[in-house]
């Protein structure tokens, strides 16, 4: 288990690989593919507040997953996420995850 280990960029990329349909691809490629599908589905309509939209879609499940991984330990979750415990508490409340 790598609780205190600092992962290199390459190791992080390997851990952030999504496997589906017998195929693996880095998380960043999944995001890129999803964004391309989003833009294709706009059908000529404009996009607004895209950053906030994406962050809302990604941040909540990220927080939920890390909290589950840590058994609800906010200090450990904040450390894993690289944010302060007070910021974590604020975000958990923002997404009704507290």
What Rg is obtained from the alpha carbons, in whole angstroms? 16 Å
The termini sit apart by: 27 Å
Strand content: 5-15%
Shape: elongated
| SSE sequence, one letter per element | HEEHHHH
Main beta sheet: strand number and arrangement? 2 strands, antiparallel
Question: Can you offer a commentary on this structure?
Answer:
It is built from five helices and two strands, in the order αββαααα. It has 98 residues and is mainly alpha-helical. A two-stranded antiparallel sheet has the order 1-2. Helix 3 packs across helix 4 and helix 4 crosses helix 5. The N terminus is likely disordered.
Key terms for this structure?
98 residues; mainly alpha; disordered N terminus
Give the topology, please.
Layout: H1 9-15, E1 17-20, E2 23-26, H2 27-41, H3 50-69, H4 74-81, H5 85-94
Antiparallel strand pairs: 1-2
Helix pairs in contact: 3-4, 4-5
Quick description:
The chain contains five helices and two strands; from the N terminus they run αββαααα. The protein is mainly alpha-helical and about 100 residues long. Strands 1-2 form a two-stranded antiparallel ribbon.
């Amino acid at each position: 288990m790598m609780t205190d280990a600092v992962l290199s960029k390459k190791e992080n990329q390997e851990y952030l690989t999504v496997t589906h349909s017998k195929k693996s691809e880095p998380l960043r490629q999944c995001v890129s593919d999803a964004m391309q599908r989003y833009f294709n589905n706009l059908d000529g309509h404009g996009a607004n507040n895209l950053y906030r939209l994406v962050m809302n879609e990604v941040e909540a499940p990220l927080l939920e997953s890390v909290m589950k991984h840590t058994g609800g330990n906010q200090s450990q979750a904040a450390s894993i996420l690289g944010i302060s415990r007070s910021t974590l508490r604020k975000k958990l409340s923002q997404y009704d995850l507290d």
